[in-house]
Amino acid sequence: MSESVQIISSDTVKLNVSNSANDVITFEKKFDKKQTVGELKTKLEILTGGNQMSMQIELYSGSKLVCKFDNDAAMLGSFPVEDGMRLHVIIADPILSLEQNVEKFELTDQQYENRQDSVRSFLKRNKLGKYNEEEMKQLEAKRHEIEQKELERTEKISIGDRCKVTTSGQPTRIGSVMYKGSLEGKKGVFIGVKFDEPLGVNDGSVNGKRYFDCPPKYGSFVLPSAVEVGDFPEEEINFDDEI
């Protein structure tokens, strides 16, 4: 008699949330996988101040775009969400516009500020999102703590070190540290790694700027927290063992 295998999956997922309006990141918010994207947008409206009718949501693993949530009726769990990933909310301009045969109507920032029926007014009255001073302090402290840990880890990593890279949604990869520092247009410190196998995403360059040299698909830039340095010798392949 064959035994059935039961796969147990959590009904919730912990995700970070960023948005296009500012640099604030909300860390490790728990979301129900059974809620629809439409319901998710309602919660993100309060969290980010965006309008759910016009917001767009993208899912990232590190700096890599995993997918876009383009179906409001789909459940969150139907997308490849995993703990630690990041939801990026693209917020449309709050200025109102009517495009179909109607004269364009615009509000100045001061007029929008004075409105009592706006999302901004709602957030202020209820001290939510960026208008919750205590929550903003906690987020800033959390962000500072993470930045400090990344810097401390970076100091222990040297060019030429052998390393193991572990990132969400990717197999464990072995390689050598080729670069550490900032990337043009990106915030924070990154580690450039040349992998032993073609399991990367670039050739040591990003957006046309080169940071180190390696063959295509052998290079990647990852956060210091994903890198473990140590004695990781390159695996030798013995073709005599193949049949």
TrEMBL record:
Gene3D superfamilies: CAP Gly-rich-like domain, Phosphatidylinositol 3-kinase Catalytic Subunit, Chain A, domain 1. It is found in: Cytoplasm. One of its GO terms (molecular function) is microtubule plus-end binding. Residues 181-223 form the CAP-Gly domain. SMART domains: CAP_GLY. The keyword Chaperone applies. GO terms for cellular component: cell cortex; cytosol; microtubule plus-end; nucleus. Keywords: Chaperone, Coiled coil, Cytoplasm. The keyword Thylakoid does not apply. SUPFAM superfamilies: Cap-Gly domain, Ubiquitin-like. GO terms for biological process: cytoplasmic microtubule organization; post-chaperonin tubulin folding pathway; tubulin complex assembly. Belongs to the TBCB family. This is CAP-Gly domain-containing protein. It comes from Polypedilum vanderplanki.
